[in-house]
């Protein structure tokens, strides 16, 4: 028999997380996880912005992570917020690019994250980091 322990959240909702391969294809699985969580919380109106944010966070982790896997986390730190995070084993802090080099197709994902989230940041750990973004949302049903 397996015992499952959950950590209570301020809103009473469980968080959602999944370990995925550190590959570009994991962005689709991350979007599915985000859509599942937001649907469970009655926050369908935030799905598209959240899907874009998690795609960019996964893309950064794929480019800069060190190990073959990443972890995607979707949580509710407060009733009016959804936090999307991606954990990888790199300690390199992401920097938002604001240059206008039109020839570069990559490297500006955090500009999009910054535009779509109320706030974003990086939590450093001894073994790596979590890059996260928080979207403001209405109350759940």
Provide a descriptive summary of the structure in words.
The protein is α+β, with helices and mostly antiparallel strands and 141 residues long. It has a single domain (16-136), classed as Histidine kinase-like ATPase, C-terminal domain (Heat Shock Protein 90). Helices cover 29% and strands 27% of the residues. It is built from three helices and five strands. A five-stranded antiparallel β-sheet has the order 1-2-3-5-4, with helices on one face. Strand 4 (119-124) and strand 5 form a beta hairpin. Helix 1 (26-40) runs antiparallel to helix 2 (47-64). The longest helix has 18 residues, at 47-64. The protein is globular, with a radius of gyration of 15 Å. It starts with 15 loop residues before the first strand and ends in a 5-residue tail after the last strand. Residues 1-12 have low confidence and may be disordered.
């Amino acid at each position: 028999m397996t015992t499952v322990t959950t950590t209570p959240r301020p809103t009473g909702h469980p968080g959602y997380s999944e370990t995925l391969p550190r590959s570009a294809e994991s962005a689709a699985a991350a979007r599915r996880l985000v859509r599942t969580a937001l649907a469970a919380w009655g926050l369908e109106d935030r799905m598209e912005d959240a899907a874009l944010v998690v795609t960019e966070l996964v893309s950064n982790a794929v480019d800069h992570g060190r190990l073959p896997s990443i972890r995607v986390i979707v949580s509710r730190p407060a009733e009016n917020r959804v936090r999307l995070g991606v954990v990888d084993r790199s300690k390199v802090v992401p920097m938002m690019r604001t240059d206008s080099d039109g020839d570069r197709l990559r490297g500006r994902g955090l500009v999009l994250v910054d535009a779509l989230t109320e706030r974003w940041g990086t939590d450093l750990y001894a073994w790596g980091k979590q890059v996260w973004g928080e979207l403001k949302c209405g109350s759940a049903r």
